[in-house]
């Protein structure tokens, strides 16, 4: 009972600190930018394959490939990395909470926040886009949820492994994901967004959606891509737990 | 199976003989490497109820020792136990209150909120956490300033908040890393009184400092560290006994002073006698023999001694001397 109370206190504390952190401001700007773009470009249009294609390309190439990882890294690295950089993690490590539960509390506070932001803003864009959005919302929602989950887990691994995890995660998200995800061949399979985009292209193909250049982007099946994202999420989180449980943080004091 | 602790300079401290095994902080042949650099080197000691001062210059290994005790670091060799628990374990954290030497907090919180949150992280209900927070803030003299935001608190107030969060769950072991830094003399006296009161309740308190006067006023036992090793352990008096042949300066107010000066000058272990208006200032290289000899002179020559005191018996002198022996 005492452990559960301590765990919920830590989860609530982390959630509250993340909401009122600089990360919130950092992700609000691109989310608002997307909203303005959707308002200007897609508002009021009736459904047509061309409209759907354009809206989908925006969601896949901008929202899923850029905004989702930015949201995940802003909060995913801040939940543990913020405490490390502020040197307040020591106050948590000397409490009678197993280290694995400390990390799970951080994760449990971060995931709903990032999911809420991603799903909430995606819902808003779809509402603004009218008929096109109504068709797109249920189609791409699972892919966005799986991508968010994978990114949040991955960035927790960054946070427990590296001191300046936000910078490293930013470099990873902006360069590695974009570069590797755009390469031909199998190199792109190391990028999380490749699997998310595979799901989105696959579920949209009934509406005539296809990659800009199919020779460069060969999507995996929905099942394969989904399992890959789940695997990245579980693997990332388990690795993060192992690292956090065993690691000495010498830089805290 | 536990290995027996070796006899070395860091052996059992005198104040702790009667302490139950469950109330001891035990370092058993502890060595800690940071890559190729050694942080602490084969340290064994048992620290029990009372205030133990951990002394040493910067880089001596004090913080490493406290981090090992608080379970932030794991020893490369040996073991650190808090009662029956390994210091790294979660169970040990129930018994441990730790005040780090950093000056970082959740700055957006008030002092009360911070200590209350730490109490909640120990699993206390809201009501109990409130009660304990009130007690801890009262103890550190922050009750009237508890609602001030941490970002606006002075360094001394922040030190008190750190102490309050270490006390809030009423642990039997307190590890305080430089707790008096930045506190004004009045506040220092209050904190000292608090620590002495807590020690009287049976708590085990390990206080690190590089300011020796602080520890001298506070601790019943001391551990002196240099280059990752304990170079002396015991009460200040016992540590001084290690220095039988340490040159010592003694001031004697006696009548007739000149006659006593002449007699002392003949003693082979006296290096010099100076007659001042305040009395005689004598330098001796063997304090033990010297004091015995003075006693004999006083009795046999009818000299009246008003006052006799060593002028350099403070912890600083002791520390300097012991450290020289390690170099």
The helix/strand class of chain A is: mainly alpha
- Poorly predicted ranges of chain B (pLDDT <50, ≥5 residues)? 1-11, 13-18
| % residues in beta strands of chain B | 25-35%
Strand order of the largest sheet of chain B: 6-7-8-3-9-10
Number of contiguous helices of chain B: 11
Beta-strand segment tally of chain A: 0
Could you state the order of secondary-structure elements of chain B as H and E? EEEHEEHEHHHEHEHEEHEHEEHEH
Anisotropy-based shape of chain A: globular
What's the domain count of chain A?
1
* Helix residue percentage of chain B: 25-40%
The CATH superfamily title of the largest domain in chain B: P-loop containing nucleotide triphosphate hydrolases
> What is the ordering of alpha helices and beta strands of chain A?
HHHHHHHHH
Entry keywords:
heterodimer; A: about 250 residues; mainly alpha; about 80% helix; B: about 325 residues; alpha/beta; Rossmann fold; Alpha-Beta Plaits; six-stranded mixed sheet; four-stranded antiparallel sheet; 11 helices; 14 strands
Question: What does this 3D model show about the protein?
Answer:
The complex is a heterodimer of chains A (253) and B (327). Chain A is built from nine helices and no strands. Chain A is mostly helical and 253 residues long. Chain A has one domain. In chain A, helix 2 (22-42) packs parallel to helix 5 (99-128) and helix 3 (49-86) runs parallel beside helix 6 (131-161). Chain A starts with a helix and ends in a 7-residue tail after the last helix. The model of chain A has no long low-confidence stretch (mean pLDDT 90). Chain B has 327 residues and is α/β, with parallel strands linked by helices. Chain B has eleven helices and 14 strands. In chain B, the strands form three sheets. In chain B, strands 6-7-8-3-9-10 form a six-stranded mixed β-sheet, sandwiched between helices. Classes of the chains: A mainly alpha (253), B alpha/beta (327). The A-B interface holds A 1-6, 9-10, 13, 17, 20, 86-88, 90-99, 248-250, 252-253 and B 34, 63, 67, 70-74, 90-91, 93-94, 96, 98, 100-102, 104-106, 108, 117-118, 120-125, 165, 177.
